[in-house]
Amino acid sequence: MDGRLEHLQIQPSNIISTGVVSFKNGNPVIQFIIGEQDKYLIGNSLRFTGNIEILEGVGAAARPPVNASTAAMDPKLGVYSVISEVAIFSQRSKQQIEHIRHYGRFLASYLPVLSSKQEGIGHMNKSQCSIPNAECERLGLVNNVNGSGNGTGTQFKGSSFCLHLPSGLLNSREPIPLSANGWGTGGLLLEITLENDSQVFGSNDGTTLSNVFYQLSNMNLICEVVNPSADVLASLANQNQGSLEYNSISSYYTSVNSTNAIVNFNLGVSKALGAFFNVIPSQDLNNTRANGFACLPFTNSDGSVARLNQLVWTRGGVKYPYQFNIDTNVKDLALAVPYQVEDPQVIRNVIGAFMPCADVKNTQFSPITFTRDIGADGDDKYQADAGTMFAVGTAFDNISNQGVDFSSVNLGIQMELGLTTDHPQTIFLFVRNKNTLIFNANGLQVLN
Asked: Chain-centre distance of CA 364, in angstroms?
């Protein structure tokens, strides 16, 4: 684009006097305002930065967990664990443009699918404080006394982070116009809702944690904007409307607890491109005895894996996008056969929910991470490479990229499972949909 690149640094608009926010102390929402201006935002340049401090104890006696503490965080997510929701609005009209709920559960699959283990050890470890090993994550972030500000020579409290916020709008290849003069969104309001401490932290030995919490400080939003040249700006001044195409992420959840699991979702979108879901035992959510962001296969109450034997996707009750049942590689095997390799077709299809498989250059999916081999107690905390990354998904349209209409018909998922005990499983479904944002001097409208 013709113009001059500028860098912005924005502080929260609702910051409290101490500059420290946390879920525990009743400050669960952080707001940033990118004001209306005749400029274009480069969405994928946006970063949420700050320091995170993890403490254990009550009041002034709270200190970073010692090495003997059992407090741990999900190694796939790091600091991303503390974000529950991301919402983007027009700053001028307050019209909602995109809202991603269950953000940590979304990223628990999104990040491993599209990044390698080497990236997890390297730049992701520095930017989001994650590392694909549960014990390294515990010692490097949760028990990081050196980064707590209590040691000699430390300049700040907590570990530094710099997070890209994956979302449909911000990942758009097109710059986002911020103008309020008919050819833009009228600025943006970004709202980050923080996650409950009991969901963020889990014990690495199955015991219940108490009084472990996180707090954020020195928060900023940094981004790049393009200031159009005088000629371009003069041309834009004659426009009184415009549009922008982008993908959005919609989230849904339900639970299953039977061998014949049938779920239906009313998506209400007309250009669905793909969908995927991950699974966790319902009892592990908001439970400090377990990792609430684990992406486990279906499990029974005794910790055994409940095999996914058959999978059928439907649209309005008709098989779609596959005109056949997906019978997995263990469907006809006796239960006594410990076949640990997950079905390759299931793996391929879930990767396709994010982008065409041929375009995926880096991934952490492997026989080690996408496996039926989990711990005897039904968790993955001792598994290599950040634990299991089980997910199920499908692409609806990777050819025309125009999407499939689910505005008046339901998405159905039928599964034959090995769930033989009373052990509810929560399913978090995420749908990628193509949206069109239309804006003029009177406001904006989202067509999905």
From this structure: 16
- Label residues 6-30 b or e (16+ Cβ within 10 Å = b): eebebebeeeeeeebbbbbeebbeb
pTM given for the model: 0.94
DSSP class of residue 297 equals: P
Q: Which of 182, 242, 235 is nearest to 3 (CA)?
A: 235
Which fold would CATH assign to domain 3-244? Hexon Major Viral Coat Protein; domain 3 (3.90.249)
Calculate the alpha carbon distances from 313 to 58, 248, 265, 334, 418 in Å: 49, 21, 12, 25, 18
Q: Residue 165 has which token pair? A: 């916020």
Please state, in angstroms and as integers, the Cα–Cα distance from residue 354 to each residue in 167, 184, 204, 250, following that order: 12, 28, 31, 13
Angle of CA points 78, 161, 124, to nearest 5°: 55
The CATH architecture annotation of domain 250-436 reads Distorted Sandwich (2.70)
What's 183's DSSP letter? S
Domain spans, the chain: 3-244, 250-436
Q: Which two tokens stand for residue 190?
A: 């970004």
Model pLDDT for residues 56-83, shown as the tens digit of each residue: 988 878 888 887 788 999 999 999 999 9
Collapse the DSSP code of 243 into the 3-class scheme (helix H, G, I; strand E, B; otherwise coil) and give the result: strand
Q: pLDDT band for 212, please (50, 70, 90 cuts).
A: very high
Cβ neighbours of residue 130 closer than 8 Å, sequence gap 6 or more: 74, 75, 76, 77, 78, 79, 80, 120, 124, 137, 141
